């Protein structure tokens, strides 16, 4: 693969730059000098661990007989392991609810901020973005306080209406409790990206649409949203990759929601438990890889459904 | 609220009132956790658990006493965590940014052999779940004796493919090839052309990538949680997580720890909030121009 692309590139470049052989050599050299340092880090901390994880996942450590090569046994085990399957099903369901909620909040807010500029909207933009600056762990700790029965405000607030406070740590509501935490954490960041994309649109287009009789809503729906589709797709793909790896928030809230969030709540938590609590690195690696497979399938399915594979990451 | 009343008189803004109310609700929602933390870090343990309004101050407001307890608890370990987080964020952020700027510029401005292949491999890496790398990296590092050292947290943070992607697009769009050629014709070497001509043009994106990678390092939890066992090396995220685990496990005996966790959360977010407000204009410029269109 490398050789092939190199050869074809070389050939086209050679025909166009026949006279500048020395300059071409220098260009190759300089290019690699600039990219090289990152390339070394990339090989050492991405390619090597990935290859090593794949290697590890093909072995099993037994009490008797030591480590043995088992090919895909770990994967067969993972995809029939109820802990892995229920975790994977949870993150998929969670993505289907949490991502649309976050993007809708972000999109609505960005459209408003793009259309209306007052001091208050500028102030709101900053405040809504603020949670992005907060580590996810601290965000989860903060919401843990707010959900808490012993010192959270929910009891007081619902008490005003004579209602019992919802317990977001119960198995019925933990899903929504977590949707709320990630929406709070990420909606502002997505809002800023969408807002930046909206600001990049040429205002002359709105003028043209207005001449054709389009109102505010039509301009938003028919002109603005189609033009920022690449930014929306980028956000969707990154949030999908991030959400399927869900770890920090449930890991932190686990202490408070004892019994509701088990150690196998998400695939990543399960891999962590296998590797670092049970020292079962082979199976932990296999789960990480299986999760990587789930991420790949979901992202690919998403890109296929939207039929926008080409416009993404040109 | 002053901004609202000051602009409300102007023609054309009054009909935006529903929109402004909607935004007002959102602002309240996004600020509630901060407000809760600001209010409750003023309280002592009895104030915290004594019932009363959890969204308002009690009679005794004791920020200084709580701060003193926070920074002296367990031999001043909290201060160490903050310093560790700062070190990891600066080293990881600056290192990742330097690598990303060089690589992004190299990809954008040199047509070298293997460029297209290397670039598509890097784009593919954006899809790799970052956490899948933690387990094998841990085993590799433990073979090298690097686990439970600062390097086990800093070195993997140097990897930021998204930063390279951003820098590539920015360098491609904001640094015209003609300017570089002109510099070369004038006799500037490649390095000088990069440092004196291209780099100043790329500055907004550099600030963006620097902030994004520093924040990513500061926020990192899974990697240090896996790598570090010595609590004197913890970043503040892992440290507070551990405290929270202890406090939840023995709910009755650790009421004073809860007030430390609350104030600790507040103190730990202040540096980031200051950084974001200070560099607001810079990083937004980088994001909007940085190809996220």
From TrEMBL, chain A:
Localisation: Cell membrane
Keyword DNA-binding: no
Transmembrane feature ranges: 32-55, 90-113, 125-146, 186-206, 227-247, 286-305
Domain ABC transmembrane type-1: 88-304
GO biological process, one term: transmembrane transport
Membrane topology per record: Multi-pass membrane protein
GO CC entries: plasma membrane
Pfam families linked: BPD_transp_1
Protein name from the UniProt record: Multiple sugar transport system permease protein
Automatic annotation (TrEMBL), chain B:
Topology within the bilayer: Multi-pass membrane protein
InterPro entries in the record: MetI-like (IPR000515), MetI-like_sf (IPR035906)
Protein family according to the UniProt entry: Belongs to the binding-protein-dependent transport system permease family.
GO cellular component: plasma membrane
Keywords, ordered alphabetically: Cell membrane, Membrane, Sugar transport, Transmembrane, Transmembrane helix, Transport
Main subcellular location: membrane
ABC transmembrane type-1 domain mapped to chain residues: 82-279
Pfam families, sorted: BPD_transp_1 (PF00528)
Descriptive protein name: Multiple sugar transport system permease protein
Keyword Transmembrane in record: yes
TM annotation in the entry: 21-39, 87-107, 119-144, 150-171, 201-223, 257-279
Biological process (GO), any one: transmembrane transport
Compartment(s): Cell membrane
Domain of life: Bacteria
Coiled coil: none
Organism of this sequence: Sphaerisporangium rubeum
């Amino acid at each position: 693969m490398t050789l092939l692309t190199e050869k074809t590139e070389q050939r086209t470049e050679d025909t166009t730059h026949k006279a500048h052989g020395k300059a071409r050599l220098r260009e190759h050299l300089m290019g690699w000098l600039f990219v090289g340092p990152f390339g070394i880090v990339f090989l050492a901390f991405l390619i090597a661990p990935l290859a090593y994880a794949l290697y590890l996942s093909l072995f099993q450590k037994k009490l008797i007989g030591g480590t043995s090569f088992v090919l895909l046994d770990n994967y067969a085990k993972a995809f029939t392991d109820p802990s892995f399957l229920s975790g994977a099903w949870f993150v998929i369901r969670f993505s289907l609810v949490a991502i649309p909620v976050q993007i809708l909040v972000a999109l609505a807010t960005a459209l408003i901020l793009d259309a209306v500029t007052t001091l208050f909207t500028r102030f709101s933009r900053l405040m809504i973005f603020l949670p992005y600056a907060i580590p996810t762990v601290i965000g989860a700790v903060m919401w843990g306080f707010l959900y808490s029965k012993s010192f959270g405000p929910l009891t007081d607030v619902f008490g005003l209406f004579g209602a019992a406070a919802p317990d977001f740590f119960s198995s019925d509501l933990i899903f929504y409790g977590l949707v709320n935490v990630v929406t709070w954490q990420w909606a502002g960041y997505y809002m800023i990206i969408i807002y930046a994309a909206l600001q990049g649109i040429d205002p002359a287009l709105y003028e043209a649409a207005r001449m054709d009789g389009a109102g505010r809503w039509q301009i938003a729906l028919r002109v603005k949203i189609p033009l920022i589709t690449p930014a929306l797709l980028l956000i969707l793909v990154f949030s999908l990759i991030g959400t399927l790896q869900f770890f920090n928030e449930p890991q932190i809230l686990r202490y408070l929601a004892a019994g509701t969030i088990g150690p196998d709540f998400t695939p990543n938590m399960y891999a962590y438990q296998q590797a670092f609590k049970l020292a079962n690195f082979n199976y932990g690696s296999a789960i990480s890889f299986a999760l990587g497979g789930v991420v790949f399938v979901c992202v690919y399915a998403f890109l296929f459904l939207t039929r926008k594979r080409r416009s993404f990451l040109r | 609220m002053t901004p609202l009343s000051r602009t409300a008189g102007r023609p054309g803004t009054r009909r935006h009132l529903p929109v402004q109310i909607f935004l007002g609700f959102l602002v309240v929602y996004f600020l509630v956790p901060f407000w809760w933390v600001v209010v409750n870090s003023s309280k002592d343990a009895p104030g915290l658990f004594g019932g009363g309004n959890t969204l308002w101050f009690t009679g005794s407001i004791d920020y200084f006493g709580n701060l003193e307890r926070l920074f002296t608890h367990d031999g001043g370990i909290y201060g160490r965590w903050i310093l560790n987080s700062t070190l990891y964020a600066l080293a990881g952020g600056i290192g990742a940014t330097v690598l990303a700027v060089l690589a992004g510029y190299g990809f954008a401005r040199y047509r070298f052999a293997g460029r297209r292949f290397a670039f598509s491999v890097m784009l593919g890496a954006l899809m790799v779940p970052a956490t899948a790398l933690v387990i094998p990296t841990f085993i590799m590092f433990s073979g090298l004796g690097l686990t439970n050292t600062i390097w086990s947290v800093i070195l993997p943070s140097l990897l930021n493919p998204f930063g390279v992607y951003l820098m590539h697009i920015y360098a491609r769009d904001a640094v015209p090839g003609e300017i570089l050629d002109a510099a070369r014709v004038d006799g500037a070497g490649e390095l000088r052309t990069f440092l004196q001509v291209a780099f100043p043009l790329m500055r907004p994106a550099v600030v963006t990538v620097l902030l994004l990678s520093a924040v990513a390092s500061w926020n990192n939890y899974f990697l240090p949680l896996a790598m570090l066992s010595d609590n004197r090396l913890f970043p503040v995220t892992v440290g507070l997580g551990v405290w929270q685990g202890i406090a939840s496990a023995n709910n009755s005996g650790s009421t004073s720890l809860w007030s430390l966790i609350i104030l600790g959360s507040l103190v730990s977010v202040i540096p980031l909030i200051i950084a974001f407000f200070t560099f607001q204009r810079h990083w937004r410029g980088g994001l909007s121009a940085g190809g996220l269109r």
